[in-house]
Structure formats: structure tokens, C-alpha cells
Amino acid sequence: MSEQSSRPFSRRAVITTVAATAGAAAGGALVVNARGDEAPRPSGPERRIEPFHGAHQAGIATPQQRHALFVAFDLEDTDPVSGDRLSSERLAGNFRRLMERWTAVAERLTQGRLPGPMPGAGPQVPPDTGIADGLEPSRLTVTFGLGPDLFERVGRTDARPHRLEPLPAFRGDGLEDAWSGGELLIQICGEDLQVISRAFRALRSRAPGLARLRWTQQGFLGGFGDATPRNLFGHKDGTVNPRPEAFDAVVWADAAEEPAWFSGGTYLVFRKIRMDLPKWDTVTARVQDETIGRRRDNGAPLSGGHEFSTPDFGKKGPDGKPLIPADSHLALVRDVPMLRRSYNYDYGFQPGGAQDDDHEHDDGHDHGDGMPAHDESAHAAFDSGVLFCAYVRDPGEFVRAQNALAGADRLNAFIRHTGSAVFAIPPGAAPGEPVAAKLFPRT
Description:
This protein is 23% helix and 17% strand.
């Protein structure tokens, strides 16, 4: 990713500037109570309402919230009553019905309203769990994505975004089916986990008969405010996100090169990356910094300056070696355009967890002084790391970067990619229409 400026800037301000119109709209929003009445509500980051409608879906240019839940679904293959395999026409109808339901629920919940009636349920079945009663929306956003296999299943291969292809296998991957792939994605973000849980349950409860749950992953960030968030290695994560003037060119798909219905859309690359925290926590600070290519304390490149200084990859130290190692993470990912909107995850100790059998990515632990012997059992037993989320106009840019990283990155000694997926993120919806409605134009 390009680092072209030595001028400090607020990371949150980058996305806030892009989303200025949405933020202004939210500033004077009203909350709708259970009776349907509109009433003024206090302002503040925990109580803000993020706009749902617009040219782009919320949850992308939106200033990043502290919590996220990623949920993947697949369309059902068979009729729930007869058991017959569904035709592409039936699947297309189910997809449209599902997006109508999900869009209606998302629109209402993000605006502080009840989710609406449960389709097909009797009058005694409550439309909502009640677990968020009395809570504000807390900047809730719901973002929908479509996987590579969906378009053939619903009979619209001609409308598949041109750069939507399954991600290839990368050297060192240890992918697990339990959290990879998916035909449909829901990204739910907000400042309150209970509000997010309510949204997930409301959306999931509208899926039976139409789609089945494939996987879920939950992430978090600290309350860093305008500062760049830190990952579980303690390093800043997202320093080189695009500036406002470059944001559109980096994130939104090129309308001239994509199907017309996809104008205003983007792509999301999702990777679950397990960190070997027991190993990382016992290496020297020098090993850690040289692995990343930046100082942990302030995020500055090892060539000097501050967090947003342009790295000098030719600058050498007293020993004649580059201050930023050529195989550091920073050196290998430079000039790769993407919006990182990643989250930490920590599922903690997993008793009886599967052992990693393939350690092709581990090169014998010779990355510097202070490297201890590696405890494989500890690494396998802890499931902690980062839910890497990159919004890009072309997933091929990520593939190029990951191929370079897989072959040489020092960081490979401390990480393992265990989940992988890519989705086309449709443009935003206008009032009264479902997300991705233009995929099936009315005749």
C-alpha cells in the first residue's frame, strides 16, 4: 500500500471525511420508540444513527465501529416440504425473497425501530428477541455481500461482477471449511454487542427455508478514537488506509468495467488469520519490530519519522543492512491499494484443538536473536488473531500482495491463515427497494 506523505493525519478522519454527508444526516436523526412515535434523542457516538440508504452500503466508508459480526449463509438446495432439488428459477426467487426480508429488517434496526413482523409466524410469535429493548442503535450498520458461486445458482452468471473469483490457494494456508467460503455475507457492526446480537438473531430468523447458516466470526477493537487501532501483536493496523482524495479510486468498483447493476459496489476480501501469540509474546522487541517493519510504540517505519512518514527502504543502519528488512511485512505490502477494516478476535484457549500438521510457513525460527523454541501445542490450542477485511475495487490486488507475502514475509513464522472468502458488495439501496434489487431488473 502506498505511503506517500510525511504529514500526520487522523485515521478516523479519513473515513469520516468520505462519509461526511452520511454523518451530517445522522446528526439530526430521530429515534423511533416501540409505539412508532418519533422523539428527539441525545447526541453522542454511542447513540448516533448511521444512514441505511445511499449510493453505497453503510459499513464501508462508515467510521469503524468497535464490534463486528461476520455471518455467511448458503441458499438452501432443496424444497423444505417436498425435498425436491430446487431449480435456478426457484433459487432466484428465494434469493429475492430473502433480500427483501433482510433489507427490511436491516433498515428498521439501524434506524432504531423494531424489525417488523416475522414472515409466516403466528400472532403469538414475537417479531423480536427483546434483548435490545431500551438500547439505542449505537451506530449499527448491516452490510450484505454476494459470493462467487451465488450467481450461477440463481441463473445470473452474465451479471456476476467481473473481478469476483474464488481466491486461489496460497502457500502456507491452513484453511478450514468451518469458516471459509459462502454464497451470502452479512457484516454487522456497531458499538454495542447486545445490539449486534439482536440484529443477527433477527436476520437469521428470517432465513429458514431460504438459506442456511455456514459460519460466523466475531471481532472487536479497543476504543482508540482517532488513533489507528492496534492488533493483538500490539502493532498499529491500518496506518496506510487511503486518504479521502484517493478513497473512491481504491475502494469502489470501476463502473465502466463492471455490470451496470454493480455501479457503486465494491469487493470484500475476508481472511481469518490465527496469530501465534504464545510465540510472539516471548521474542524480543527487536524481532517484533523487524518482522513488521515498524516500531510498536508509535507505528513509525524503522527508517525513522512518525507513524505516517514515508518509509525509506534504502536507508541503512550502522551494520550496512536496510533498517527496514526487505522481507518485513511493511516492505512486502507497500503500494497495494486497499481499505483495511479489520477486527481482532480472541476465542482463547481451545481444549482438544486440532494440531497443525503442515508448517511450511515456519522456516526454523531463525528470524533474529531472542527467538525461543516454538511450542506447537500452545499455538494450536489458542485461537486468537485478526479478522482481516480488505475492501478493494479489484481482489486481484490482494492476490498479488498475498502471493508475495506467502513466499517471503517474516510474519509467516507467527501467523496462519485459517479462513478465507471473497464477496461482491452490491451498491446501496434506495428507499423501498432491497439491496441487490437491480440484479433482477423488473420486466
